């Protein structure tokens, strides 16, 4: 089952069920007006949403034509956005780039931070940028949880994974070192993230969702140039079960929390990268001089992220964004073809 949120003049939008061909949608306001309201009462609501999804497939005239540019982030605002570094190869490379050592504990438990969640960008929304910020993309997979109690077992944690999404977790690399030196972590350097148009239930993913990891292909493009053709899940050192267990060691997560597994990274560097910082460090390791390293995003640059299962289905839709000067950033229907 695929779900999305349409603009309707309200802050949290309108929940819709999406057809498999991503051309039609059906609102069920009597069941759940918003995705958050569905998550709050998931055990009751899910069955009704599944009935609506089946009807949408069986009745070609049911529902409305889906205008992709009308879609907000599946959760336009969330109770929490928690991101982890689930791929150690990414963490190792990026820390090396800024001259920082890997903390010994990072190899036995995930590193996480709590980021901005009161404003999530849609799949086609501008990335506010500035030449001095070192604006970077980060291609990731995330989950939306139900209520996860403190100290769950691995099984209990994964039972609360309600939906999965594609993410562009924007980072401002030039601002990170000074913030981390203060000892309180990210703030200005981690602005709003963007999410693919569709949130998908685990059963929709079949065997690709296993052991708390999503296996498939993440393609990363900047200005139409492929920067990464990566395999998710394959080199994921910490599963979503690991991340959820660590995040809830002393507290729970409320229904509607978004949890990311971190920038996708493969140990085989020939597969490319999901962020520019990692590309730059690989170039440095290959002997490139500072002036020849790939630059970070500048206004006018475009970013495209797509994820496909092994059968070729792009279940999350695509993320298409343009970096623009911060004062000019706004939601614009720049890209029209994001159908899965």
From TrEMBL:
E.C. number: 3.7.1.2
Keywords for this protein: Hydrolase
GO molecular function, one term: fumarylacetoacetase activity
Main enzyme class: hydrolase
Fumarylacetoacetase N-terminal domain segment(s): 1-77
Entry-linked SUPFAM superfamilies: FAH
Descriptive protein name: Fumarylacetoacetate (FAA) hydrolase
Phylogenetic placement of the source organism: Bacteria, Pseudomonadati, Pseudomonadota, Betaproteobacteria, Burkholderiales
């Amino acid at each position: 089952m695929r779900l999305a949120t349409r603009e309707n003049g309200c802050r949290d939008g309108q929940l819709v069920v999406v057809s498999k061909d991503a051309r039609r949608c059906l609102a069920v306001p009597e069941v759940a007006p918003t995705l958050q309201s569905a998550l709050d009462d998931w055990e009751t609501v899910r069955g009704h949403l599944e009935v609506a999804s089946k009807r949408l497939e069986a009745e070609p005239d049911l529902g409305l034509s889906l205008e992709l540019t009308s879609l907000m982030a599946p959760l336009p605002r969330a109770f929490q956005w928690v991101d982890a570094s689930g791929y150690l190869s990414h963490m190792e490379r990026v820390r090396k780039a800024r001259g920082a050592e890997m903390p010994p504990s990072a190899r036995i438990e995930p590193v996480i931070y709590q980021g901005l969640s009161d404003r999530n960008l849609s799949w086609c929304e501008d990335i506010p940028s500035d030449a001095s910020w070192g604006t970077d993309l980060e291609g990731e997979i995330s989950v939306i949880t139900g209520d996860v109690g403190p100290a769950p077992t691995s099984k209990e944690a994964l039972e609360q994974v309600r939906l999965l999404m594609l993410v562009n977790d924007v980072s401002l690399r030039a601002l990170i070192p000074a913030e981390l030196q203060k000892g309180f972590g990210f703030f200005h350097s981690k602005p709003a993230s963007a999410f693919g148009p569709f949130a998908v239930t685990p059963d929709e993913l079949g065997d690709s969702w296993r052991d708390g990891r999503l296996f498939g292909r993440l393609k990363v493009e900047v200005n139409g140039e492929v920067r990464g053709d990566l395999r998710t899940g394959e080199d994921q050192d910490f599963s979503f079960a690991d991340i959820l267990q660590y995040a809830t060691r002393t507290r729970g997560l409320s229904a509607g929390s978004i949890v990311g597994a971190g920038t996708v990274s493969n140990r085989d560097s020939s597969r490319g990268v999901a962020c520019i910082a990692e590309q730059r460090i690989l170039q440095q390791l290959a002997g490139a001089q500072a002036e020849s390293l790939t630059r970070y995003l500048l206004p006018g640059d475009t970013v495209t992220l797509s994820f496909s299962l092994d059968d070729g289905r792009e279940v999350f839709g695509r993320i298409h964004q343009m970096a623009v000067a911060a004062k000019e950033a706004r939601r614009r229907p720049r890209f029209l073809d994001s159908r899965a």
